[in-house]
From TrEMBL, chain A:
Role this protein plays: Component of the Mediator complex, a coactivator involved in the regulated transcription of nearly all RNA polymerase II-dependent genes. Mediator functions as a bridge to convey information from gene-specific regulatory proteins to the basal RNA polymerase II transcription machinery. Mediator is recruited to promoters by direct interactions with regulatory proteins and serves as a scaffold for the assembly of a functional preinitiation complex with RNA polymerase II and the general transcription factors.
Protein name stated in the entry: Mediator of RNA polymerase II transcription subunit 18
Localization, UniProt: Nucleus
Native species: Folsomia candida (Springtail)
Assembly and interaction partners: Component of the Mediator complex.
InterPro entries (UniProt xref): Mediator_Med18 (IPR019095)
Family: Belongs to the Mediator complex subunit 18 family.
Pfam families linked: Med18 (PF09637)
Record-level GO cellular component terms: core mediator complex; mediator complex
Length: 225, 685
């Protein structure tokens, strides 16, 4: 009889709702919700040199650089136009991997960059990452978000410790075209170095700056665009 | 008392200085700040003879500190006379002792206020502008620049020349000793060393790292070794492990080249010094012991604990040191897990450099770290009478490498914007809505010790099963037991396919039996598809095989009877009649000859040596029992004799069964004999 009914302690544990655990997690500052970012761009004809250098600097030397092929869509939720004060429009990005269809889709909220002291080496903005399924599109549409733009990005992904370095190229997205005929938007690749960490870990910025120094003068990674 | 605002206003009129002929009044401009200040400063006696100061003068000085023209209006009217009187009266004795200090402070305050005002006015840039005084541009003297450049270049050239001098002398020395020309150059050796190991230059010395840190190891012990130019031979041949550190650095030209005595083999031009705790040879010994007898063991690393010769090639020494480090790390991981392991009924025992784990009752797994420094072994080596179990050796090695790899290779996210550091399964946890239980089981992972325990248990179980099957197939010849062990297996799972076959009757008389050997249990799949789970006791598999043999005989007989034309009247693989068997159940069948005149009843028992197979020939009632030879077993009671003095119901005279002595029959084995019997019995009219 006792084995069927949960004991008092188990009942107490079961009654811990998801909201409680979430609030306690947020208070104890373990949720990574700050992104430290450095970005830059490089012409297409010099990308190979940059890739070689990154291959030497980053981890996982034995396996080659990891490629990615993603499709990103940006959704914007505007506030109620009828009322007086309009909140700033909420931007959400949905990204799916075209080369790995079993991987979950990725929903991202990126806040405005923090305008802080000039001594900080990187740009900091608050970020929230959520893994979602493919029905996120329907969900966002029902919420009232408007699909602003789409783009396809292809490139390479590197990792050094907890730093993630992306070298990618943006292509135009046409719903009819196949993935073979990709039309580039610019003649250059973009490079992003980012770390997602909980608030307060500012030493990450120094690590990023050190790595960015190694990549000069091929590419200058800055915190502003 | 009451807050009354008192405002002080300056009378706007200035003193008239002069009246011109056309009636214009030229007013005395108010004294500028500097003029006022200078006027005041004249009054101050800086020398210090401030004997008597009138109170009025004090107030005058105090009021004028702010540069108010009020003061000036009171004094300027007096002209010089009052000024003189003030000057006269100024030099009076101080009324109180802090007078002079206070005066000085006041003047200092005046000056500072003036300065402050000037600066604030200059900041406004409307009335006063501060310009830097531009220095005269100095002519860049071409001659001076030339001299500076020359000096810089000379310094750089000096560095290069000194370096090349060193190289030249070392090259000359190398060329001079042509006797041992086979000795490679120091720099070429260094190049080779650099191709295999990570080196870096720290100050004057070259240090290297032989740890597995870049492969993902997080062992705190560092593996730093030093590279030095080899010294003279006599130092090397008779010194022990800790040699006195060579005084010269690698680049010193003064070190002489070594000369090898012809007896020892030539060593290299450079020598590596490994840290003391990594010297020697180490290996991890894995022994499976049953009471005192060793069943199987494996050695990790170099098998023979012979010391590395001191003038060994640096590659061997470095590899040996790296191996020592690897073994230490492996043992520390195992020891840590052994202390934390609670899932076994008898927890593992960690004593010094030995871990003892109980696999099965009476069977121990002993893992020990053997580290020998220069031939002096810490534990005596086990005499290798048994074969090495290379699989266990490889497994431990592979498991630690797997740990290293998982530390360094984290799967990268797809799509690229996802955060790194999260495993693929965790990423799917959200969209697939895993519950708490699934998440908890996902994070649990077996440690190295648990894995090796499972593998060792499997090794023991496999050995036992092999022994049982081999013993049975050696002892039992009637159905032949053919065992095919699968050649590709997992570390904890092996398959063996047993076939019970009667020789000569392979086509019809085969019983397959599939046995899966796991870590702690066996699974047997019988011919009819039933799966039976057995424990690790060897008796259980033996009993099962014996039972299957009994069934095989009966089944084979049925097939044979089809060939011979006999009818199977009934057959049962689990007879419920007769004596109760200790192992399994007896199988039996009842056959009838083609003409119906004879029956055969067979009872096959799993017990080999007691009853074995019993064969009865059935004769129809009221027929003559003819003995064919002396095959009948007269000792068995004739069960069908009705007891006449019973008075009970007369059963009637049914079929008379006579037991047959199988060893009197001709034939290789049971089936052969029965075939002969069937042939004879079926041939009657």
């Amino acid at each position: 009889m006792d084995s069927l009914e949960p004991s008092a302690k188990q009942q107490e544990l079961q009654s811990l709702s998801a909201l409680d655990t979430l609030t306690s997690a947020m208070k104890s500052n373990i949720i990574p919700n700050q992104e430290y970012l450095l970005q830059g761009s490089i012409f297409d004809n010099s990308v190979d040199v940059l890739l070689h250098r990154l291959r030497g600097l980053c981890d996982n030397v034995d396996s080659g650089p990891e490629t990615f092929h993603d499709h990103e869509a940006c959704f914007v939720l505007y506030g109620n136009p009828g009322t007086g004060q309009q909140p700033p429009p909420l931007t959400l990005r949905v990204r799916r991997a075209l080369d790995d269809t079993s991987a979950p889709w990725h929903l991202r909220y990126m806040g405005q960059a923090e305008i802080g002291d000039k001594n900080r080496p990187t740009m900091i903005r608050s970020t929230l990452d959520v893994a979602v399924g493919s029905d996120i599109l329907e969900f966002l549409k029902e919420l009232g978000c408007r699909r602003e733009f789409d783009f396809i990005t292809k490139g390479f992904l590197f990792r050094k410790g907890r730093l993630k370095i992306i070298v990618g190229k943006v292509y135009r997205y046409e719903s009819g075209k196949s993935s073979q005929e990709l039309e580039p938007v610019t003649q250059s690749h973009y490079v992003e170095m980012s770390v997602v960490a909980p608030t307060g870990q500012d030493t990450v910025g120094d690590d990023m700056k050190t790595l960015a120094e190694q990549l000069k003068p091929l590419i200058f990674l800055k915190k502003e665009k | 008392m009451s807050g009354v605002n008192v405002s002080v206003e300056v009378p706007l009129e200035n003193q008239v200085f002069e009246i011109t002929y056309d009636g214009q009044e030229i007013q005395q401009p108010p004294l500028s700040m500097s003029e006022n200040l200078s006027r005041l400063a004249q009054r101050i006696d800086f020398v210090g003879k401030d004997d008597e100061v009138g109170g009025r003068n004090n107030s005058g000085v105090a009021a004028s500190a702010a540069g108010e023209p009020m003061d000036e209006s009171s004094t300027s009217g007096g002209g010089t006379t009052q000024g003189n009187s003030e000057e006269q009266t100024f030099k009076t004795a101080p009324a109180w002792p802090w007078e002079s200090a206070r005066n000085k402070l006041q003047t200092a305050l005046t000056e500072l206020s003036v300065l402050g005002d000037i600066i604030s006015i200059a900041q406004q840039k409307k009335y006063l502008v501060l310009d830097p005084v531009s220095a005269e541009p100095s002519d860049p003297k071409a001659g001076a620049v030339l001299i500076y450049k020359k000096r810089g270049l000379a310094a750089a050239a000096q560095v290069l020349i000194s370096g090349s001098e060193r190289l030249r002398t070392s090259m000359n020395e190398a060329k001079s000793k042509t006797s041992i020309s086979s000795l490679p150059d120091f720099h070429i050796q260094l190049l080779r060393l650099r191709q295999n190991w990570r080196l870096r230059k720290v100050g004057n010395s070259i240090l290297g790292d032989l740890s597995y840190r870049t492969a993902g190891s997080r062992f705190p012990q560092t593996g730093i070794f030093e590279v030095k130019k080899a010294e003279d031979a006599p130092d090397e041949t008779d010194s022990v492990a800790d040699e006195p550190p060579a005084p010269s650095s690698s680049g010193a030209a003064s070190s002489s080249q070594h000369q090898q005595p012809p007896s020892t083999k030539p060593s290299s031009a450079l020598k590596v010094i490994v840290p003391n705790e990594l010297q020697g040879i180490a290996y991890i010994e894995v022994v499976i012991q049953k009471d005192q007898e060793t069943l199987s063991f494996a050695n990790i690393g170099l098998p023979s604990p012979s010391p590395a010769p001191l003038d060994a090639y640096w590659q061997q020494r470095l590899e040996a040191a790296q191996n020592v480090l690897f073994c230490k790390e492996l043992f520390s991981v195992l020891a840590r897990e052994a202390v934390a392991l609670h899932s076994l009924p008898i927890p593992p025992l960690v004593v010094g450099s030995q871990i003892t784990v109980t696999l099965f009752p009476g069977i121990l797994l002993i893992i020990s770290l053997c580290h020998s420094i220069n031939g002096k072994t810490s534990t005596p080596p086990v005499t290798p009478k048994l074969d090495h179990n290379h699989v266990l050796e490889h497994s431990l090695h592979q498991l630690l490498r797997e740990v290293h790899r998982s530390n360094s290779c984290i799967p990268l996210p797809h799509p690229a914007s996802a955060p790194i550091g999260v495993s693929r399964k965790r990423r799917l946890a959200g969209p697939c809505a895993y519950d708490r239980q699934t998440l908890l089981t996902m994070t649990k992972k077996d440690g190295i010790l648990e894995e090796i325990i499972k593998q060792s248990q499997h090794v023991v179980l496999r050995l036992r099963t092999m022994v049982v099957i081999d013993a049975l197939s050696r002892d039992i010849k009637d159905p032949l037991i053919v065992a095919h062990w699968a050649s590709l297996n997992a570390v904890t799972h092996t398959c063996v396919r047993l076939t019970l076959v009667s020789s000569g009757y392979d086509m019809g008389a085969r019983t397959p039996l599939m046995i899966h050997v796991k870590e702690k249990s066996l699974k047997a799949i019988l011919r009819d598809g039933k799966a039976i789970h057995l424990s690790y006791e060897p008796q259980e598999i033996r009993d099962l095989i014996l039972a299957q043999i009994a069934i095989h005989q009966v089944m084979a007989l049925q097939t044979l009877s089809k060939c011979m034309g006999w009818t199977v009247l009934s057959s049962n693989t689990h007879l419920g009649v007769g004596t109760c068997e200790t192992i399994g159940n007896a199988a039996g069948c009842l056959l009838s000859s083609p003409n119906g005149k004879r029956q055969l009843a067979i009872r096959s028992s799993p017990q080999l040596y007691h009853c074995g197979i019993q064969v009865f020939i059935g004769y129809p009632p009221n027929s003559v029992v003819e003995g064919i030879g002396e095959i009948f077993d007269d000792q068995t009671s004739d069960l069908n004799q009705p007891s006449l003095d019973d008075g009970t119901t007369d059963f009637g005279s049914g079929i008379v069964y006579k037991s047959v002595k199988l060893d009197r029959l001709e034939g290789k084995h049971f089936l052969n004999k029965i075939e002969m019997l069937m042939a004879v019995l079926g041939d009657l009219e």
